[in-house]
From TrEMBL:
Keywords: Signal. It comes from the Bacteria. Residues 1-20 form the signal peptide. This is TonB C-terminal domain-containing protein. The keyword Signal applies.
Length: 122
């Protein structure tokens, strides 16, 4: 029997260092995660080639947001290992299922949130 473990960690700020976050942030409050992608939905996105190879992965993405708390314009900053499609399915899952709270409008230039997602199969 296969067991799939999925983990989400949220990293705040924009791409770059914490100092860059302070320099590019506005006086607006930064949103926080209200709802993470559900494990059962992400399981359906697990790359078939990775399942067949019994391999996990890790992806770091960065995203903007909409005024209603949805993620937009996500892009991968890191994908390990490459070639299995982990970045694409992570972005698809996060844009479809993640909800943020505490925003005061759409993200502006330089306003992004980072997310790390680990795919593990045992």
């Amino acid at each position: 029997m296969w067991v799939l473990w999925l983990m989400v960690a949220v990293l705040t700020g924009v791409a770059g260092t914490v100092a860059a976050q302070d320099e590019t942030s506005t006086s607006r409050p930064q949103p926080t995660m209200k709802k993470a992608p559900p494990a059962d939905a992400m399981l359906k996105l697990y790359p078939k080639a990775a399942i067949n190879a019994k391999i996990g992965g890790e992806v770091i993405i960065t995203c903007g947001w909409t005024a209603n708390g949805r993620l937009k314009d996500c892009r991968a900053l890191k994908e390990e290992p490459e070639g299995y499609g982990f970045a694409d399915v992570t972005i698809r899952g996060f844009e479809a299922y993640t909800e943020l709270q505490g925003m005061t409008g759409d993200s502006g230039p330089g306003e992004e949130k980072k997310f790390r997602y680990r795919w593990t199969i045992e």
